[in-house]
C-alpha cells in the first residue's frame, strides 16, 4: 500500500518536455520548421523580431508534459497578465507556477541585474545631460519593481557623468521623513558636483504631490550651500518616468 502511494505521487509530478513529442500533447519545438523556431529566428533576425512568448520560451528552454516551451510561455504570460508582472513577481509567486522553480527564478534575477549593470556602465561612460532618456530608463529599471516608496540619488561628477546611485530612504517619502542633512552628507562623501533626485510611486501614478515639490525645494536649497547642484527630480511609476524639470516644477 505504501509503495502504491509512493508511485502515485511520482506519477503526479510534472514531466519535462526534453524535445520529444509528449504523449497526446503539443508538438515539440524541435519538430517545427527551422524558420519558425524562436532560437533560430532570434539568431537570424535579432531578438527584437520575437514576441514576448518566444523570448520567454528561449529563457525557459523546455516545456512541460503537454506543452512546448512556447505553449508554457504563453500560459505563464496569461497567468501573470503580461511580461512585466512576471518579471516583477516575487519568488513565491514565480515558483508557484508549473515549470518555474528556484533555479529559474535565480537565473531571471541574474539576467535582470546584468541588464541594470549594463545600463549603469553605459551611463558612467556618457554625460547624463546628453542622454536624459537613458538616465530615466535606468532609474526606472532600478525602482519600478519596488513595492514601497524608495528615495535615492544619482551622483554626478563635474562633467555630469554618473558616479554612482544610492538608495537613501525607504518608506513614506515626504519633507518630514527625508532629511537634507543625510543627502548632503552622501553628496560630499562622493565628492559629487551635482545629482539627480529620484523616488518611486508604487501606485504607478507619477504626478508629483505637494510634498514632493516642497521636498525638492528643501533639498535643492540645502545642497546649494555646499555647492552641489540638483539637476532634476525623477518620479518613477507606470509608463514613462516624470521629470520635474521638464514639468517646470524646479
Automatic annotation (TrEMBL):
CDD domains: MPN_DUF2466 (cd08071). The keyword Protease applies. Keywords: Hydrolase, Metal-binding, Metalloprotease, Protease, Zinc. It comes from the Bacteria. The keyword Protease applies. InterPro entries: MPN, RadC_JAB, RuvA_2-like, UPF0758, UPF0758_CS, UPF0758_N. One of its GO terms (molecular function) is metallopeptidase activity. It holds the Pfam family RadC. GO terms for biological process: proteolysis. Belongs to the UPF0758 family. PANTHER family: DNA REPAIR PROTEIN RADC, UPF0758 PROTEIN YEES-RELATED. This is Uncharacterized protein. The lineage of its organism: Bacteria, Pseudomonadati, Pseudomonadota, Gammaproteobacteria, Pseudomonadales.
Amino acid at each position: 500500500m505504501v509503495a502504491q502511494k509512493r508511485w502515485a505521487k511520482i506519477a503526479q509530478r510534472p514531466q519535462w518536455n526534453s524535445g520529444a513529442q509528449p504523449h497526446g500533447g503539443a508538438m515539440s519545438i524541435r519538430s517545427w520548421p527551422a524558420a519558425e523556431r524562436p532560437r533560430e529566428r532570434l539568431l537570424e533576425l535579432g531578438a527584437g523580431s520575437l514576441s514576448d512568448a518566444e523570448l520567454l520560451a528561449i529563457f525557459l528552454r523546455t516545456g512541460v508534459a503537454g506543452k512546448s516551451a512556447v505553449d508554457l510561455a504563453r500560459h505563464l504570460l496569461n497567468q501573470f497578465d503580461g511580461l512585466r508582472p512576471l518579471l516583477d513577481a516575487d519568488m513565491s509567486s514565480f515558483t508557484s507556477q508549473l515549470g518555474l522553480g528556484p533555479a529559474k527564478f535565480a537565473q531571471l534575477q541574474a539576467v535582470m541585474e546584468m541588464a541594470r549593470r549594463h545600463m549603469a556602465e553605459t551611463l558612467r561612460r556618457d554625460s547624463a545631460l546628453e542622454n536624459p532618456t537613458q538616465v530615466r530608463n535606468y532609474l526606472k529599471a532600478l525602482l519600478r519593481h519596488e513595492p514601497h516608496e524608495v528615495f535615492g540619488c544619482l551622483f554626478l561628477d563635474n562633467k555630469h557623468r554618473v558616479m554612482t546611485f544610492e538608495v537613501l530612504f525607504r518608506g513614506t517619502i515626504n519633507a518630514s521623513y527625508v532629511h537634507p542633512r543625510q543627502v548632503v552628507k552622501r553628496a560630499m562623501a562622493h565628492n559629487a558636483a551635482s545629482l539627480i533626485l529620484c523616488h518611486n510611486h508604487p501606485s504607478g501614478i507619477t504626478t508629483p504631490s505637494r510634498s514632493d515639490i516642497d521636498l525638492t525645494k528643501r533639498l535643492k536649497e540645502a545642497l546649494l550651500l555646499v555647492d552641489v547642484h540638483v539637476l532634476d527630480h525623477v518620479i518613477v511609476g507606470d509608463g514613462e518616468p516624470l521629470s520635474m524639470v521638464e514639468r517646470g516644477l524646479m
